[in-house]
Structure formats: structure tokens, C-alpha cells
Design goal:
The protein is an alpha+beta fold. It is built from four helices and 15 strands. The protein binds fe (ii) ion.
Length: 269
């Protein structure tokens, strides 16, 4: 929540911004250098484009489902590049270690085979992901084998479809939208689109914050800070299929922000 009594400074792609709340409750974002920008509000977040958008905000069709309220978890600053934050979110292999007793645990740490495919509009989708989770969400009363689908539709926006612990034939959705602050720092904005299962928004928020706080030190200790895109820059194993596909897609679309491109290996040192 922003304090309406004062202006807030933030940054997008290295460009300083000032955020103020108008008397009518609307949020105004301005560049410090007063150059034009484009802003919009959706899903409880303010979306800013430094230039003229060439396409719309990420569509989230499930946000229109009446039994699926959007819970804004809150923003978390991370000293890691945006692509590193997204890649960590996709990583099934870390669940049993970093999120032990919640999203995975010994002896169920092995990542079972899953499928990764390109999305027709760009991006990737990982399906048939399965992980035994002792405490998959605040509503889970026992551990169970959780089905996951991961999607990355934009370079810095990803989501996870996760079997609901009560309605196991439907999915809760967790979005992670990353604000690229500088090439090596980010602000993560998680959004929850969960089915009603008796869990309060406060409990959902607290659970996600606990999970993200387990990720934060791991992310901040990754070296190099920017994500290396060269094949073989960091040794992949079979469990990293989605990470490899994500890096290749970023290479293919020519992303330069927060990454070490394959042709600039020297800067990684
Ligand atoms: Fe994590």
C-alpha cells in the first residue's frame, strides 16, 4: 500500500519515476525527466511503459472468473536481475530444498520428467510437472502430489497453475510480475488468483511472503547477477529443461536487459 501523503520514488529500466496518489485515489506515475510515459491500472497493479506500448497488458482471462478474487501479495525488492527472478520461479529442482516442509521435502526432491513447449504467441509452457508437497498452500491439511503448469508469456511475467488442495480438479494461479529496476535489481509483484477454500487473503499473502522470503537470499547470492544466455554457461541438468527453454527464448527475441548475451561472455567475469 502506498502512503497517499507523500510521493514515492521508484525506477523502471534504470529510469527514475515518481509515484503519487491523487485526491480522487488514482495513481499518477511521472518520469523525473518529465518525458512522456504510458500508464494503466489492471489486476491491482499499475503498469508503466516508458514509450508507446506496441501491445496490451498481459491478458489474464482467469481474472474475470467470478469465484477467483485477485490478491495482491505486496512488492518485494530483490538484488537480482529480472530474468534471474523469473528463472528461479520456474525451477522445480529448488522446491524440496529452499522450500522444504512447504513446497517439497526429502525424500521427494527428485524432479520427475515434464514437458516444455513454445507458446504460439511467444514464450514457453511447462506441463506435466509433479511435485510432492507437504504444505502446498495454507489450506492443505496433508501432503500430496501436486500438478503444476508453468507459463512464461512475457520476458518478465510468469505464472504457475497449481492444483487446488480442496478442489483438486481446478487450479490456483500464482503470477509473478517483475519490475526491472536496474539490470541487477528488481521488484517482484506476486499476484494470487486462488479459488475460495476458506483461506483468508491475509493468510494467502502471509504464505506467499514466507515462500518468497526463502527465495530472496538464494536469488541475491547468485553470481553473476545477470542471467547468462550462452548455452552451457551454467551446467543444466534434465530438471532445468524450462530454464534452458526460457534462456533460449530470451536469446531468440534479443533481450539485452538483465542478461549476459551469448556474444558478450567477457562481461560475465
Ligand atoms: Fe522458490
Amino acid at each position: 500500500m502506498l502512503d497517499p501523503a507523500r510521493a514515492h520514488e521508484t525506477m523502471l529500466l534504470g529510469v527514475p519515476l515518481v509515484v503519487t496518489i491523487n485526491a480522487d485515489g488514482t495513481i499518477a506515475v511521472q518520469r523525473v525527466d518529465h518525458a512522456a510515459l504510458h500508464q494503466d491500472e489492471r489486476y491491482g497493479l499499475v503498469w508503466v511503459c516508458l514509450g508507446t506500448p506496441t501491445r496490451g497488458i498481459l491478458p489474464i482471462p482467469e481474472a474475470d472468473e467470478p469465484d477467483r478474487p485477485i490478491v495482491v501479495v505486496g512488492s518485494v525488492g530483490v538484488r537480482a536481475s529480472g530474468p534471474r527472478v523469473i528463472e528461479n520461479f520456474l525451477d522445480l529442482g529448488h522446491l524440496g530444498y529452499v522450500h522444504a516442509r512447504y513446497l517439497g521435502d526429502d525424500p521427494h526432491t527428485r524432479v520427475l520428467p515434464y514437458t516444455v513447449e513454445p507458446l504460439p504467441e511467444g514464450g514457453i509452457i511447462a506441463t506435466q510437472c509433479k511435485m510432492f508437497q507437504p504444505q502446498a498452500s495454507p489450506a492443505a491439511t496433508e501432503g500430496f502430489m501436486v500438478d503444476y503448469i508453468y507459463k512464461v508469456e512475457r520476458p518478465l511475467a510468469t505464472c504457475l497453475y497449481k492444483a487446488n488442495p480442496v478442489q483438486r480438479d481446478r487450479f490456483d494461479i500464482i503470477f509473478l510480475i517483475v519490475q526491472p529496476v536496474t539490470e541487477e535489481t528488481s521488484i517482484a509483484h506476486p499476484l494470487l488468483l486462488c479459488l475460495p477454500d476458506g483461506t483468508t487473503p491475509a493468510a494467502l499473502r502471509a504464505f506467499q511472503q514466507t515462500i518468497f522470503m526463502q527465495d530472496k537470499p538464494i536469488l541475491e547470492n547468485q553470481v553473476p547477477k545477470r542471467l547468462p544466455l550462452a548455452d552451457g554457461a551454467e551446467l543444466p541438468i534434465a530438471a532445468d529443461k524450462s530454464s534452458v527453454a526460457y534462456r533460449r527464448w530470451l536469446s531468440a527475441i534479443g533481450l539485452t536487459w538483465g542478461v549476459i548475451r551469448a556474444d558478450e561472455k567477457a562481461r560475465a567475469a
